[in-house]
């Protein structure tokens, strides 16, 4: 059997029916493009999440009120953290380099005729180094501001643009809950974190949130939304997590379930990675159905082709072609269709990934494994689904085939 001749005949047959061949390949093209694009977009989402977590601050940990189990059982979070907890962590945990208590809420911000709900964060001077923020203009909150509960604010970059476009905001006054605050600083742009705009915030001294904005709700001290903590270095993170947990359990006199959660960047990133990885796998599996549909389409078209080409098959058998020759002929045609669809689908899928990367924050990420797998699967599907029509063609009796023609 001459393989080169068989391949030439297969190509000639397929190109002789361009429209039918193109429609047959369509399922493979869509399947390959979908699988490659979904995996690439999923990996881009994971990289984006990783970059955003790095922007939270160096070696940062978070202490939040309520246990993970309690959060799963109910949406209501009991405020179990107070400022004294943050002070104790800063004083008694050697693996920690900085502690930034935070109390935050959505409040209407008014300047002139502009009224906009904005996230108001009450915090201390430690916020800047712990969360890796920078001041672009003016100054940040200092210890005197916190001790005196001063009515001053440091605003995010987007707040500065929205309220003071083309104007220096330093020295201007905003109103929060009908109380006037002086703008003393503007933060450098930070970007978004998991959909939350970190530049659309205003920051006030932590004590001011109690004395002016929201009052005191805990009998044990100034309650907090969460505590941001910076470990001394990356190697100190496990020790810091262990020491913080032990200290908090002693302070809260816990003997059973914790009423707080200590989470590291890697913990949160692992959860996000699990979610995005699961969604990527699900979308890729759904897209993979297109490959199966494409394989069925190839089988159907090849079966029709066998019926249409009975005279050709009978004539080839009459002049000496064996069943194996006919079988190989049809198998080559099926594999060529699926492989061509796989290559075109790969090009479309990669183009789609770069298009999404160009119009969204996601980084374009082409997975060589996904490309290899998609093309290999498409070729295998063509081979598998081409067996039935190839066998049917090979079994045709030459005399019956010539008569039926």
Which structural traits does this protein have?
405 residues; 2 domains; alpha+beta
Detailed description of the structure:
The structure is a single chain. This protein has 405 residues and is an alpha+beta fold. It has helices at residues 3-16, 18-54, 68-73, 83-92, 127-131, 143-148, 157-163, 206-213, 237-251, 265-308, 310-318, 323-359, 368-394, 398-404; strands at 60-65, 96-111, 114-123, 135-138, 152-155, 173-176, 179-187, 192-193, 196-197, 201-205, 226-231, 260-264. The strands form two sheets. The protein has a six-stranded mixed barrel. Strands 8-9 form a two-stranded antiparallel ribbon. Helix 2 crosses helix 12 and helix 10 runs parallel beside helix 13 (368-394). Keywords: Cell membrane, Membrane, Transmembrane, Transmembrane helix. Its main location: membrane. It is a multi-pass membrane protein.
The residue ranges in which pLDDT falls below 50 over 5 or more consecutive positions are none
What best-fitting shape do the alpha-carbon axes yield?
elongated
Strand content bin: 15-25%
Level of helix content? 55-70%
Number of helices: 14
SSE order: HHEHHEEHEHEHEEEEEHEHEHHHHH
User: Quick check: average pLDDT?
Assistant: 79
User: What is the straight-line distance between the termini?
Assistant: 26 Å
Q: How many extended strands?
A: 12
Number of domains: 2
Strand line-up of the largest beta sheet: 2-3-10-5-7-6
Q: State the secondary-structure class.
A: alpha+beta
Largest sheet: 6 strands, mixed, barrel
Oligomer: single chain
Q: Over all CA atoms, what is the radius of gyration?
A: 33 Å
